[in-house]
Amino acid sequence: MNKSKVAIIRCMDYDTENVYVAIKKGIELIGGIKQFCSEGEKILLKPNVIAGKPPEKAVTTHPAVFEGIVKILLENKINVYYGDSPGYDSPISGLKKSGLFDIAQKYNITLGDFDKGRNIVFQEGKFAKEFNIVNAVFECDGIISLPKMKTHQLARITGAIKNQFGCICGFNKALYHVKIPNGENFCKALVDLNNYLKPRLFIMDGIIAMEGNGPSSGDPIRMNVIIVSNDPVALDATFCRMVDINPEYIAANVYGKEYGLGTYVTDQIDFFGDPIENFINKKFKVIRKPIRGKTTLKVFRPIEKILARRPVINSKLCLKCGICVEECPVDKKAVNFRNGKNNPPNFDYNLCIRCYCCQEVCPHKAINVKTPFLGKILGV
Ligand code: SF4
Ligand code: SF4
Which ligand has the minimum distance to the alpha carbon of residue 333? Predict the structure, then answer.
């Protein structure tokens, strides 16, 4: 069996030339760009543009990383397409606010269609067999994924595997959470999605990562690294090891291995570049436990939903914009203006499926995910 390949490259800043050199070195160490794409092909670059935020917020893939790979592809006479489908915002608005649109204009590359998509059937899927995929995927011969190194409240981390969720069309993303409310099953579907899309190469922007209340309300933290891989599971496992979280706590890694997407087992990965030990940050703020344990005390099972981790609104930060209400995928709205629009929205935790879409889209960092005191004691 061929081993997966991961290149770890130190990169201390977003200077365009430094980032370009780091990405080029990473790709060369795992076989060179010609291993992944050929002259004349159309390649879709899929950055993480979960929301339209400026680069310094560390929410989105940095424009310098985007520019680095654009240059490499153009030098190799590859036709470059790009795009993403943010959770709340139009694709074009998200790309403009994150600085990627300007880079695309500079190099005259093509914006893929992330507004519309089509349903596909994927019989080989182990858990999910149908997806609504954006048209951009069908316009191109292959995908290069450009994830951002960040925390995530549902999946713990968001990296190479999760980045492809942006290839699901618009509001269908939120509806997936309703169809698949269980976090572990959601990760199985993500792995199936990756097995369908099969991106050829993954380049993670970990120069300034996000810790804490990610993926859009956390804090930027310097990790000074670009990680390049042909295997999204191996890449995400490398990210896990850097921030001292057991890769097996990430359900997408576990099912990624089980469903043949890749491997998190160190012996099955060839590492290149800088030693991982140089990047380990044990203080990186991330939840270091599996997705959601069950209380061992059966008597509490009926009220587990009340005890479990849940989104909470900080009324001092909330500007009552209503975006969280709009984005809540539950029909009856688990978050809503139950006390009128002059007050912050509040939650019905019995309706809430813990998808954390509200926390992801809140533009004012007003939603945190917290475990109630009793839930902590009971390990819910
Ligand atoms: S919690 Fe955030 S998204 Fe919801 S109304 Fe308040 S500011 Fe808007
Ligand atoms: S309230 Fe938030 S976490 Fe709960 S279902 Fe709605 S969007 Fe998801």
Answer: 2
Q: Domain residues of the chain, as ranges?
A: 4-279, 298-378
Q: Given this model, what pLDDT does residue 298 score?
A: 57
User: Can you give the three-state secondary structure of 213-240, one letter per residue?
Assistant: CCCCCCEEEEEEEEEEECCHHHHHHHHH
What is the reported pLDDT for 175?
79
CB 186 within 8 A of CB 85: no
Helices (H), 308-367: 323-327, 357-361
Integer angstrom CA distances of residue 172 from 19, 91, 180: 34, 14, 12
- Residues of the chain with pLDDT > 90, as a percent, come to 84
Q: How far apart are CA 70 and CA 78, in angstroms?
A: 9
**Nearest-CA residue for atom 7 of ligand 1:** 318
**What does the mean pLDDT of the chain come to?**
93
**What is the rounded CA–CA span in Å between residue 142 and residue 339?**
49
CATH class of the domain at 298-378: alpha beta
**For 152-187, how does the pLDDT look when each residue is reduced to its tens digit (9 = 90+)?**
988 899 999 999 999 999 877 877 888 888 888 999
* Positions of the chain with pLDDT lower than 50, given as ranges: 293-296
The whole-angstrom separation of Cα 125 and Cα 257 is: 14
Partners of 156 in the beta sheet? 152
How many angstroms is it from 347 CA to the middle of ligand 2?
Answer: 8
Nearest CA to 96 out of 54, 64, 43 is that of 54
Report which ligand 1 atom has the smallest distance to the Cα of 335.
Answer: 4
ipTM, 2 dp: 0.99
Confirm or reject: Cβ of 174 under 6 Å from ligand 2: no
d(CA 223, CA 348): 38
Q: How many residues does the chain have?
A: 380
Q: Does domain 4-279 have CATH number 3.40.50.1980?
A: no
